């Protein structure tokens, strides 16, 4: 039994060594290795008590990795999928929205670099930014060249 606990702990630490994971993510990934009910919860409680599992770090990690390429709505969706507290997700999204136009402009510039020549190209650019999770107002300002921040 002790080896299973070590195995669960080892698996959890291996996952955490790659990147930050939320408790819900670890539960989902490690549930199939649990041999006794409650065993996984104990392991995760221990890791949380030692601050190996920290939701604040998970939020910051996702924002750091994804904000240069994605809009607030896509990042919000990713944070929600990780099972994070709604309040933490809302605060992160509020912070992201403050820099949304600037980040969208960077993404647009890397991909296209010049204003659309016609309606077809304009639609393509707008769809690209929408697929990255940027909002409609932001997309319109960036594609129209509205530099009036």
TrEMBL record:
Modulates RecA activity. NCBIfam families: PRK00117.2-5 (NF001055). This is Regulatory protein RecX. GO terms for biological process: regulation of DNA repair. HAMAP family: RecX. Residues 11-46 form the RecX first three-helical domain. PANTHER family: REGULATORY PROTEIN RECX FAMILY PROTEIN. Belongs to the RecX family. It holds the Pfam family RecX_HTH2. GO terms for cellular component: cytoplasm. Residues 100-143 form the RecX third three-helical domain. Keywords: Cytoplasm. It is found in: Cytoplasm. Residues 54-92 form the RecX second three-helical domain.
């Amino acid at each position: 039994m002790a080896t299973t606990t070590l195995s669960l702990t080892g698996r959890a630490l291996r996952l955490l060594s790659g990147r930050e994971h939320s408790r819900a993510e670890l539960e989902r990934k490690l549930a199939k290795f649990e041999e006794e009910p409650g065993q996984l919860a104990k392991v995760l409680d221990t890791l949380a008590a030692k601050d190996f599992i920290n939701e604040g770090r998970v939020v910051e990690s996702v924002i750091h990795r994804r904000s240069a390429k994605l809009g607030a709505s896509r990042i919000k969706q990713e944070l929600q999928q990780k099972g994070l507290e709604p309040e933490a997700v809302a605060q992160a999204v509020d912070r992201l929205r403050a820099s949304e136009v600037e980040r969208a402009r960077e993404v647009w510039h890397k991909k296209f670099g010049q204003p659309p020549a016609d309606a077809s190209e304009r639609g393509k650019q707008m769809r690209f930014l929408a697929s990255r999770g940027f909002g409609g107002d932001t997309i319109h300002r960036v594609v129209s060249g509205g530099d009036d921040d």
